[in-house]
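Hey team,

Filing this mostly as a record. A colleague (T.K.) asked me to run one chain through the structure pipeline before their review meeting, and I want the input and output archived in the tracker in case anyone asks later how it was produced. No errors, nothing strange. Just documentation.

Input sequence:
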Amino acid sequence: MKTIETDIMVHPDYTFENAFHSSKAAPAFYDWVRAVRDYFYVFREIEPRRDAYMLADIQYRHKKKETEAKREEVRKAEIEVQKLRNEQS
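Output structure:
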């Protein structure tokens, strides 16, 4: 990416108009180089957020399983309490 930034993008002749007039393939290549550069910067900015999201999602799923297990324990305890109340009646 450093080469694109320091050698290609800063060159004064590197414009869409010059690419358009130079050949039929050059405008597509020009667009491709800019798209790769833009993707690099977007990915670099988004990557930490994506990693944080993935970690939070893993933690959420883990806590959800723990909560479901605790709810099952409470449900079983409530059934047991109800049985004991019925026996005393």
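Quick notes for T.K.: The chain is about 85% helix and 0% strand. Residues 26-88 form the longest helix (63 residues).
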